[in-house]
């Protein structure tokens, strides 16, 4: 929690943006994997 609080300081804006970009990338990959898994399961169900 402390790291997130310090990330709000102007000097760490770049670090916070980089962290958010990595987080967004991971969420995107997870979403694609979930979508692919559900689609394959749905196709395999028939």
Describe it for me?
With 46 residues, this protein is mostly helical. The protein has one domain. The protein is 80% helix and 0% strand. It is built from two helices and no strands. The model has no long low-confidence stretch (mean pLDDT 79).
Q: Any idea how many domains?
A: 1
Average predicted local confidence, pLDDT = 79
N-to-C order of helices and strands: HH
Number of strands: 0
Count up the helices. Answer: 2
Low-confidence stretches: none
Sheet bearing the most strands, described?
none
- What Rg do the Cα atoms give? 17 Å
Estimated share of beta-strand residues = under 5%
The computed structural class is: mainly alpha
What overall form do the CA principal axes indicate?
rod-shaped
- N-to-C CA distance: 47 Å
Multimer state = single chain
Helical fraction equals over 70%
Quick overview of this protein structure:
With 46 residues, the chain is mostly helical. It has helices at residues 2-6, 13-44. It has one domain (2-44).
What are the SSEs and their pairings?
Elements: H1 2-6, H2 13-44
Tags for this model:
46 residues, 2 helices, 0% strand
């Amino acid at each position: 929690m402390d790291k997130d609080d310090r990330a709000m300081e102007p000097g760490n804006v770049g670090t916070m943006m980089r962290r958010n970009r990595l987080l967004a990338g991971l969420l995107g990959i997870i979403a694609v994997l979930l979508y692919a898994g559900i689609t394959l399961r749905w196709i395999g169900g028939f």
